[in-house]
Amino acid sequence: MASAPRLRIPPVPALLIAGTSLQAGAAIAKQLFPALGPAGASGVRLSFAAVLLLAFFRPRLTRLGWARWKAVIPYGVALGGMNFSFYLALERIPLGLAVTLEFLGPLGVALFGSRRPSDVAWVLLAGGGIFLLSPWAGGAGSIDPVGAALALLAGAFWAAYIVLGARTAGKLSEVESVTAGMVVATAVVLPLALASGAAAKMTPTLAALGLGVALLASALPYTLEMVALQALPSRVFGILTSLEPVVATLVGWALLGEALTGRQWLAVGLVCVASAGATWSARPSPSPASSAG
């Protein structure tokens, strides 16, 4: 199995570039929705990403054995569900808000079972962010309730992805886990994409854009995060990753023209602070799941 390339780039810029690349890929995917729909865009992204990871890292998945596949399959199903529900949410709400609500999944994993008094503050901050975006809050800051629910569902799948990914530790390498998980995710979502008629609508231009989405949203950020993980403590990695809702909001504004209200920006900031605070106060733990998902 080929190892990840050793890129000569400092870890913090590598991680920031990875986050920007990931959100840029999501923005381009959203531009595919008029032609392919969210199901088609999700299927194209996952299938291209699986092919790229298989070609780039060349893991020998045929040698994993049934015991390891039993650990990978639920992990891959969670990965597929996360991507599919996130793209469905992205059709209805701005990118920055979708990422903000999705981030509540890993935040919940970080806070689950905690007994530290300081974590109450992070829960309250995150809850304040949810309220500011909720339909019942009223005003210009409220968003489509179905889109919000789908983003929260994506967050739940993300939480499952983290928990199930941790269970593959020791059974598979990180490259094997992510690549095999991407293959399973493709098997889950691709039939839905084909049922939506995406294959009949595919053109060389759309295929090229789909390849770009896979590169930006999977292959490039995953490689850069591996570089960052080799040099950064997991706590620092997690705090920097907590900035992704802000990065997504800026990318959505720059590439999609999605301007947020002041109240929505406040909600994004509250969730980011809650995520960073929970990461800082947490006990040392394995690094967060990579953005290959």
Q: What do you see in this structure?
A:
- Helix content is 75%, strand content 0%.
- It is mainly α.
- The chain has one domain.
- Helix 3 (66-90) runs antiparallel to helix 7.
Attribute tags:
293 residues; mainly alpha; 13 helices; globular
Concise structural overview:
This protein has 293 residues and is mostly helical.
Order of helices and strands: HHHHHHHHHHHHH
What is the count of distinct domains?
Answer: 1
Distance between the termini: 21 Å
> What is the general shape?
globular
Roughly how many Å is the radius of gyration? Answer: 18 Å
Helix content: over 70%
* β-strand amount: under 5%
- Would you report the number of β strands? 0
- The helix-and-strand class reads mainly alpha
> Mean pLDDT score, rounded?
84
* Number of DSSP helical runs: 13
